[in-house]
Hints:
Elements lengths: L40 H4 L1 H16 L10 H9 L3 H28 L6 H17 L3 H15 L4 H29 L1 H24 L3 H20 L4 H8 L1 H4 L4 H28 L6 H17 L9 H12 L4 H30 L7 H23 L32
Helix pairs in contact: 3-15, 4-5, 4-7, 4-12, 4-15, 5-6, 5-15, 6-7, 7-8, 7-12, 7-13, 9-10, 12-13, 12-15, 13-14, 14-15
Amino acid sequence: MYKAVAVPDLPFAQAGPDPGPGPPAETPPGATAEHTPRRSWPRRRAGLLLQWAVLLAAFAALPFVHDQLPDLGVMWSAATGADPGWLVVVVLAEAGSMAAFARLQRRLLRIGGLRISLRRAFAITYAGNALSTTLPAGPAVSVVYTFRQFRRKGASAQLATAVILAGGVITTTAYTVIGLAALMADPHARELAMTTLAVPAAFVLLLVPALRWRPLRAVVTAPLRRLYRIALAHPRIAPHAERVAGIRDVLRPTARDWAALVVLATLNWLFDILALLAAARAVGIDVGPHGVTLAYFAAQAAGSVLPLLPGGLGAIESSMAASLVAFGATLSPAAAAVGLYRLVSYWAVVGVGWIAWLALQEGPRLSARSRRHLARTGRLVLDGLTSTALLNPYSAVHAASPALTAVRAPGQPGGLPARPVR
């Protein structure tokens, strides 16, 4: 599963009911639409043009690197001959990863005083992941969608914002710690990792106790307070800055809550890594857990740095397979393992996510008269289809289905319900 580890921007809505489509935002005093500078089309589409250029260059280079690509026949044989037991582990581990993140967000909402069902939390998680990994600018769309789903369930704007921000920070921290642990476990990368982290670790170890001294803490935090005052003085930034500053008052987790959040954030990543390890074992690749973990993080980094396609397609698969080869795997089985992993962690999860997205849609609000007309039309269509299905080639009359005689207009006894059941 492709997960963005950066905390995206949030739609800081007002603290009222769920915002719907409304009038456009007011233009600041002294500014007009005519005076707003508009960039040219090439500048606005520079990122898209760069992506297409890289993709075309990759396709153009295929004839020159054809001999270095994995053999499709060997890949197919490895995938079709995969161990079923390990494949079950792949599916269960990926389901566990999604469940851990859904429970993390649900726990944060409960800390803020809002309780939602586990089924609803799972649906929001899967639907948000599908939007994030399949649409252009997917992470931003996913954040807006998740924010609105939380608001629909009764969360205030501050609580919805706090849950998304806190969830991103906690999972990113867990992601970093697991990556550092994998580097420490690799004997070849351990020395470099320790040398690189020595200076920051020493700085933090000295800074944290020193901040307990009030005069020093005032000096260190003075630039942050100054930036906050500047933000409050800006008419367009001030509302957002106030809401962000109020987040700490919305979420006040206890020690038990912190322990649960840390465990869930860690399991979110560990289960995903376990899915990749199981896929590798299913095709007979014997790479150590730390090697699979490093291959996983290398693929995540490649998907974030080179987002040529939604979900990191192309970049994740190629970097993950290359990393497994670097740790001793053969190219074609490595490509088969990555294909099995992505089949479950991306395609299957995206499919479930779009089904969850459809299930969460409320649909249009129809009047009772419109529902009666729709019910009558649907009844006529079903009568026609059923009578046609019951006719034989020599029949001269239309036969009506007995099962359809019980269908009535909405609201009548024995008929359809007056409102959709959700």
